[in-house]
Amino acid sequence: MRVGIIGHEGLSEITEMLVRGEMWQLVTVFGSYELIGVTCLREGPETWFAQAVLDHGGKVEVIVSASAGRAGAFAGPGSRTRQRLLNEANAVHRLAPVELGGFGDDTCRALVGMVDEVIAVWDGRPGSEAAEVVAAARRAGLYVQVVWPDGCASSE
Q: How far is the C-alpha of 111 from the C-alpha of 105, rounded, in Å?
């Protein structure tokens, strides 16, 4: 089962704890042999998910946007963790620039096209990238599991 992840960044410590707990429950529903987590490895829920998949014995695939690929995939806070997870990935999908016929920076379309279902760490409000991915996944007929336990707060 190929499961994608999208989520708000910049979440509080309490929100991280709540989300990690629920995410672990979702990941362990699958047999480790059948689980492939697909992520862009953004800071927060996307890296937590990748680590949970690996801890459960599943495999991880990473999507790298065209601009991130040109700039060097990861920089800033959490870059060591994200680089380690990138190195542990089974596959890295580097998106080609739009001018070469690729998706460019449209990781939303790439993610939705590569998975069977999506986990969205999302507060349900419109206007965020998470909202765009959820809408695209639902239009594509994918199952979407929204993770937003009581007590969570978003800075977005």
A: 11
